[in-house]
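Example 410, ligand flavin-adenine dinucleotide.
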Amino acid sequence: MPGPQLKKRRAVIVGGSMSGLFTAAFLRQAGWDADVYERSGVELVGRGAGITTHPELLDALEKSGAGTRNLGIEVPKRIAIDRQGRITGERPLRQILTSWDRLQSLLRATIDPAHYHLGWAFERVEQNGSGVRVYFNNGRVENADILVGGDGVRSTVRGEVAPELQPSYAGYYIWRGAPNEADLAPKTLKDIFPYFVFYLPPRQEVITYPISGFNEDLRPGHRRYNFIWYRVADAETLRDMNVDQNGTRHEFSVPPPLIRKDLIAQMHADARDIMPEVMLDCVMKIRQPFITPIYDFTAPRIVFGRVAMAGDAAANARPHMGFGVAKAGGDAEALARALGNHDDIGRALAAYNAERQPIGNTIVMHSRKLGTHMGVNLKTDEDRRMHALLQSDEAMMDWIAVPNFLDAYR
Ligand SMILES: Cc1cc2nc3c(=O)[nH]c(=O)nc-3n(C[C@H](O)[C@H](O)[C@H](O)COP(=O)(O)OP(=O)(O)OC[C@H]3O[C@@H](n4cnc5c(N)ncnc54)[C@H](O)[C@@H]3O)c2cc1C
């Protein structure tokens, strides 16, 4: 049991998105001081679109104090459609679809603005066994008992403490966007808008569902339709796609407004060739498409001395389960619990590592399993078996983004 502490303990948290905010909320509950430092100079809005929810996410939101009010839109079922737009299968499954913006604003409300610092970019950390000294841009320095890296799949914190650990490209990417409900054709609104929908041409995956509109608006007529289209591209093709409208090459992805017009035109042409009318309607109504390359990241450990990684920085799964934010919440809760249960910070971090590293690994491995649908890098018999299984619409509805998938690994 923890003994009396003379001085309140302090965490510096890098990254002001899901992991950073969850971690600050849970650490404060455990009696810690926690400050969040975010590189962006402006509030994080409009960064992502749809987020599938899971019981674990709802639980973490409640426990963190963020709550789940006006979380999103509940769909009654999933359907799969074919090239002609005919329903090929359906599954009753109630699921709440939320948006990244809604989660960000619920979590943001849990933190005193004095402890949330925009425009601070982490640069490096020194540690001496009993604490950390954290250096930011503009020469600013903060001291703390621990540093939490909640700075995403390309974590700079992790780059400092374990530069050898790098994400690897999965061999496919996503075109995504969220057309406004008000722009969609009546047939699209009637046939697919109310549902979680699958359209599965060979080696591609289109998934759509309704989410809130601008300013988290949930009113009918004001919502959006989340559209995700997975497509295969080898590393060389991706490198070419990472050259922007001005001819500048980006290492990981091109900021949406700079995506080349020829790529968008080709994407529209491909959509005309393969999409059912209702899906094509969505594609053509996306005002600003995004390209998101898919990466795997998992690490043999997530604690490095007094530095703990959380969320995507600790393990990044392909988005097929829609579980990334739930994992961020689970990491944060486990870290705070471990620090609350152990006086000795080193032992607490070891307990956190022992609990969450295997879970992160399992989630990444499960996402790779679901990714075999795309037919890329099928290396083992099990990969080929899963690939064959997931060629059916029915199997995809049973496996993709379903609740409680972790139960199979317990
Ligand atoms: C296409 C797609 C669909 C997805 N769908 C779902 C879904 O349906 N459900 C779900 O739960 N999850 C989903 N995810 C995953 C989810 O978005 C992530 O798991 C989640 O955002 C991870 O949160 P995070 O805080 O760990 O990292 P991030 O959200 O990446 O945040 C990292 C933060 O760190 C900041 N940062 C980076 N470097 C520094 C630095 N040096 N100094 C200070 N700050 C820094 C960044 O600016 C950023 O704000 C999806 C992801 C993708 C790509």
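Summary: The chain has twelve helices and 17 strands.
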